Amino acid sequence: MNPEPAAAGDGFLRLRFARSGAGTILAQSRFSLPLQALTPLTLADGASYLMLLNPTGGVLGGDHLITEIAQEAGTHVCLTTPSATRIYRTAEKPAILETVIHLGEGATLEYFPDHVIPHADSALRQSLRIEMAQGSRAIILDSMASGRVAHGERWSFTEMDSRTEVYASGRPAYINRTRIVPATKCPDRLGWMEEFDYMSCMGLFADGFSRWPQVTAAMNEELKSVPNVRGGATLVSRGGCVTRFLARSASDMTFANKKLWDAARAQVAGLLPFNHRKY
User: Model-level pTM?
Assistant: First the structure.
């Protein structure tokens, strides 16, 4: 564990989930504002559904927010956020968001935060690291907007640096880094984002699972059924599938994310869709 943040603008959230009978419970929770977690709900299949919360409404330059989550063996956790994460104007230091999630043997993680909205002149460096034990599985989402589009702030942020790492039994299964500096290379050029303002990446990973070609085909078919998006799914070399797509509006992206989430749950975990409550 990292030492607890002490400086102004720092915050931490530490959660531990454990099995209780046929379900998953939040066994331990510690936090320092501006991070906290709402009381979890228990889904029909016994999974724990929990919202990660920043009650200040956004992230400031110089903030350093650390989230550490441990899932014990056999647990099933769905993590989301109540709304999009806003990154406010950065005067000097960038905002830093670090998340580390440890999955015990046979654990299932569904990680679906809402998208990031970078305001004009903001800078963000974020990282997500997932460490998977034998027999565990994870469905994760990373989404972003080009800015506050309705305010005319399209690609007007300073920097967006995002890194995702997935390790299976200590070996790297997926490493992805996206760094966007609009002042150097604006993403609205031909062959990049063009007229699209929203981008999503969904990763599916499961130890001991072998039907990845079928899952990839199913995700591609699901994506084809969603209007106003463009993208595709592809295999990763070690037990996984990644789907990336672009959308023209936040509503298009949100609709596609939910469709893909429901498809991923069915394909990888054999689970039914559920109502993604935000209240």
Answer: 0.92
